[in-house]
Amino acid sequence: MNLDSPKVTVDKPAQYIFDALTDVKNFEKLMPDNIAKFEVTGDESFIFALKGMPEIKLKLKEKSAPSKVVLGAASEKLPFTLTGDINSISDTSSEVQLHFEGEFNAMMAMMIKGPISKFIETLAANMHKL
């Protein structure tokens, strides 16, 4: 299952966004209002839970400055990645798009597609908070 957020323009340079996204504690600023838990568990990992959803642990898997940050699920039960693509528009602004990629059975995919789409849209929309 592949889902993409809308592209958002942020009034920050690409390197600033990259640095902010590689510091996992900053993801708390991007979370939706219905966040039930957010806990940094290491320099490159955190756990979060939305109300009514199970906890998910994410860890930094890959980074290539200043254009790409990849987070992945720490659990093999729900294998997925969340990739942030950062494109520099000018010295003071950049464009960010999030890509969710996961392998789920058809039933699971059907159940989570809506909530995950809304979740990554919210993360992207909140990029200006970094």
Walkthrough of the structure:
- The chain is an alpha+beta fold and 130 residues long.
- It has a single domain, classed as Alpha-D-Glucose-1,6-Bisphosphate, Chain A, domain 4, CATH 3.30.530.20.
- The chain has three helices and eight strands; from the N terminus they run E-E-H-H-E-E-E-E-E-E-H.
- Strands 1, 2, 3, 4, 5, 6, 7 and 8 form an eight-stranded antiparallel β-sheet that branches.
- The longest helix is centred in the C-terminal third of the chain and has 20 residues.
- The two termini are 28 Å apart.
Q: What is the N-to-C succession of helices and strands? A: EEHHEEEEEEH
The overall average pLDDT, rounded, is 95
Give the total of beta strands. 8
Please mark out the parts with pLDDT under 50 across 5 or more consecutive residues, or reply none. Answer: none
Query: What distance lies between the first and last C-alpha atoms, to the nearest angstrom?
Result: 28 Å
Alpha carbon gyration radius: 14 Å
User: What's the CATH topology name?
Assistant: Alpha-D-Glucose-1,6-Bisphosphate, Chain A, domain 4
- Proper CATH architecture: 2-Layer Sandwich
Main sheet specs:
8 strands, antiparallel
CATH C-level class = Alpha Beta
Shape: globular
Helix/sheet category: alpha+beta
Spell out the CATH superfamily: START domain
In terms of DSSP E residues, the strand content is 35-45%
Number of helices: 3
Q: How many structural units, i.e. domains?
A: 1
Name the helicity range: 25-40%
Protein name: SRPBCC family protein
InterPro entries: START-like_dom_sf (IPR023393)
Q: How do you describe this structure in short?
A:
By secondary structure, the protein is α+β, with helices and mostly antiparallel strands. It has one domain (2-21, 59-129): Alpha-D-Glucose-1,6-Bisphosphate, Chain A, domain 4 (2-Layer Sandwich), CATH 3.30.530.20. It is built from three helices and eight strands, in the order E-E-H-H-E-E-E-E-E-E-H.
